[in-house]
Hints:
Residues about 1-5 have low confidence and may be disordered. Strand 7 (about 580) and strand 8 form a beta hairpin. The strands form three sheets. This protein has a five-stranded mixed β-sheet with strand order 1-2-3-4-5. By secondary structure, it is an alpha+beta fold. The chain folds into four domains: about 15-105 and about 110-210, no CATH class; about 215-345, no CATH class; about 375-450, no CATH class; about 455-570, no CATH class. The protein has helices at about 15-40, 45-65, 70-95, 105-130, 140-175, 180-185, 190-210, 210-245, 255-275, 285-315, 320-340, 350-370, 375-390, 400-405, 410-420, 430-440, 445-450, 455-465, 480-485, 490-495, 555-565, 595-600; strands at about 465-470, 500-505, 515-525, 530-535, 540-550, 575, 580, 585, 600. Helices cover about 65% and strands about 10% of the residues.
Amino acid sequence: MPDQTDRKHNIYGSPREAALLFLLPGIIQGLALYGLVELAGEDINSPLLIAGFIFALVAPSAHFLTSTKATRIPSALFSIILGAATALLYMLAEAAFGDPGEITPQVLLVSVWANLVICYIAPPFFRTVFERRARVNHYPSLFEFAWNLPVITISAGLFTLAVWAVLGIWAALFNLISIDFFADLFFDESFALPATFGASAVAIGIVREREGIVLALRNVLFALLRVLSPVLMAATLLFAVSALVQGLDKLWDGWSAASLMVSAIVAAIVFSNAVIGEEGRPENFALRWSVRLQSWVLPLLAAFALYAMYLRLSEYGLTVARIYALILVLFAAAYAVVWFISTLLSSGYGFLRQANIWLAGALFVVAVLVQTPVLNTWQMTADDQIARLKDGRLDAETFDYAYFQFELGKVGKTALANLKTDETLPAREKILGQIARVEAAENRYGFRREVVRDEDRFEAAIADGRLTLVPENTILDLSFVVYAEQEGLLQYECRDTDEAECILLETRIFESDTPQYVLFMGYPRANNVNIRLLFQNNGGWQQAFGDYLELSTKEAYEDFLERIKDGDITAGTITFRTMKIGDQQIYFLNNDKNLRELMEVSASQD
């Protein structure tokens, strides 16, 4: 294994060389990003601008993390290639999936995450081959460089925060004597961005020059994670056993359940890696068996996650986000199976090391492919949702036209155009009307406000238990029904009986000749209730947001809703202090509880 002792002058030979190789490029990187921010401020909506951001972030950062005295030229070429490749992959994704000439938010989000994966995986392989002169699958070097990256990044982040703390104190000291020059200078973007990236680059260079420090910090991190590893093992083991004994009916909540399982798997693998280290066999007997037991639980967690995703996809179909969620779950399951198999083999650690390399390579390949037409998740989503519309699993009313128009890029728009020519569609006239409205809208919100749904929507919500009227025989004002449908109160707030239970209270507590309603939106999983007052003003309807109650127990939550349904409601009067200047009354009241307590006048004061 390569010598891990503190090697002086491996990264740079003098402070002057460090300034030229780290500080100056860091400042230039910050200036480039500042220039791009200025262009963005001029409403230039172009994928080329985002590609410039990606290159300016990736290329210099890759140089800072890989450059050594022995690999200056290869590192420079690698950094330029990595920056250009990630920028071009984003451009390719926009060309393949996005709207022509525009930035498509969902494409950008996918590209950012995929390129983060690429930028994390590529440097350890580069350093293994070019710095260590080892074969590409030399696990000790890959392990070292992969774990050094977060240590270096965290150290650089802390140093940058320290720099800004010093600059903040500097500016504050001069502000005390009414000199604002330094505050204006330091917190202007033209200074702040170069200073931030320059400081970060210097920190990376200093930390990398002292590899012994990196090793020491990594060992401290491993020691901390080793303490947590048995705790996480106990939690996941007890959960798995309890879930199997108690039943899984309450476990499934779509991606929220799956994401929790994936998080547990990722944490378990990270902690287990810290325990076994490069050698693969911890000397501590308890830790060794902790990792073994954890590896046996991981496949069960993966099975839970896969089943949760299956339920979600079978019920609601594919979306771009759900496809990528499924990819994450599949990779988590693959790692879980690999760790489980490694405990059954006599050469388990050798198998684990090679499997980790292959899985990292597969993750790298997938991160590339999701930004190319080879893995067109946008088309997969459009095909699946339209198939569900045609076979009746989705009706013309619940089909998400706005998703196709505003989030699926040109694939979604092409799919809507094809729908307009399809004469076999059920409820074709309604579909055509919705497509016309969504194409005329400027954004998703505009479409949501324009669409007025059928007036029997409230009757359906009452029939399926999503909405309870109090009193039970309430006759809703027709203008309120139209307003509530336009605002999507039933579609977006009172979604279904699992997510929210809603009560609509007609009241005359607030003295007025016009109708008033209070909407209580209860969330049984969190024992929370969101409250809104809906009232008429100058012929139109408005909303006032009330308290967001966080009830302490399930019993308190259920009792609160039952009191509303039973009509256990009385009027209350509270006096608040205001300020009067001449004839002008100044009001400070809002829904801030602390402010209300401050301004409330007790009966003894009144």
